[in-house]
Every structure is written in structure tokens, then in C-alpha cells.
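Observation: inputs received (chain + iron/sulfur cluster).
Thought: call the complex predictor directly.
Action: predict_structure
Action Input:
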Amino acid sequence: MPIPGSGLAKGLAVTLRTMTKRSHTAQYPDVQPELPPRSRGVIGLFEENCTVCMLCARECPDWCIYIDSHKETVPAVTPGGRERSRNVLDRFAIDFSLCMYCGICIEVCPFDALFWSPEFEYAETDIHELTHERDKLREWMWTVPAPPALDPRAEEPKEIGAARKAVEKAEAAASAAAAAAAAEAAAQAAENEPPTTPTPESDA
Ligand code: SF4
Ligand code: SF4
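Observation:
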């Protein structure tokens, strides 16, 4: 059970601590702020990865992602094969006047087509200008920071482990096959060698 008045004492302690701290004034825009690398400024679109699956548009709680596409038929790659159809992107836009920067679209994209950029200076005087079309979303891609380096103590990803084991197995099989071939060639050479005829000195 809390002691009566303890909440008040805690609140006063916080107030006292804050009062004694020196205030720091950010000199923006003369000095650019040092933002954390994972800041949510704007969303960049890496169009090549987008398959127009519509997952991001469906999951966006604000319905502020607009996607248009059409289907195209891709001819069969092998004779007698089946034609395939694929989605072609016609429009991809995000209305940043509605976006609440929740990041759900980036999280749900299964093909890594959306990324956070820390850029935040895109205020507009006309609200319509805050709807960024695919070309502008693509430009934001070039401001996306590189992913942080992997933690050297992290567990090896299963896919890399499996790929490494497959390579090691293939290398072992190849060296075993090479050794067997060399042994067979040596045995063949020994078989084909003409028999040695005895010399008179050796008879004597
Ligand atoms: S960050 Fe959230 S609100 Fe903004 S576009 Fe993505 S899902 Fe929609
Ligand atoms: S979820 Fe990703 S791949 Fe699917 S439409 Fe959105 S950006 Fe494109």
C-alpha cells in the first residue's frame, strides 16, 4: 500500500531535478538537428521491389496510400509453357497530410519496398502538395540511411547457416570425387604399364 503523500514527494523530486538542469535551445534551422538514425521523417519507395500486393494500402489505418495498377501478360519462357500475368504499378502515392507515421505500411511490406528516411523538411503551404507521388517517394529513397552493421555477437541467421553447410557439403563431395578420379587414373596407368623383361645380367 503506498504511503500517503509519496506521490507528491516523487513529483516534487522530479520538479527539483528538472529545475536545476540547464536548458538547451536548438538553433534550428541554422544548425541541423542530429537525429537518431531510425527517425521517422518521410517514407521512401523502392519501386523495383513493389509487386503491387496492396498489403500496405489495406493495412494503413489512415487509408492514405493510393495504388493503381494494371495486369500484363508475360509470355511463357519455355516452349509449351503457360503465359503468366503480373501487376504493373501505375500510381503509388502517400498523403502525408493524413499519415500518422505509425510505420505499419513499412512493417507489413513483404518485399522491402518501403523505408523510413529521417528527412523531415517537406512542409508545404498547399495541403495537396503533401501527397507525394511515386517519383517523389523514389527520391526519398536516396536519403534512407544504410542499415546498421550486424551485431558480431548475434546468432547466425538460419538461411546463412544452411547456405554455408550446403557449400561445405558440395566442396567436400567435389574434393572426394577428385581424389577418387585421381586414384582411378593412377590404377589405370599402373595397369597399362608394359611388363619389365629380365636382362641377361639379372639372369646370371
Ligand atoms: S506510416 Fe501508417 S499512416 Fe502513414 S502511410 Fe504508413 S501505415 Fe499509413
Ligand atoms: S506492401 Fe510493399 S510490395 Fe505490397 S504494394 Fe505495398 S509497397 Fe508494394
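Thought: report the result.
Final Answer: Residues 60-62, 64-65, 94, 99-105 surround iron/sulfur cluster (ligand 1) (CB under 6 Å). The chain has a mean pLDDT of 91.
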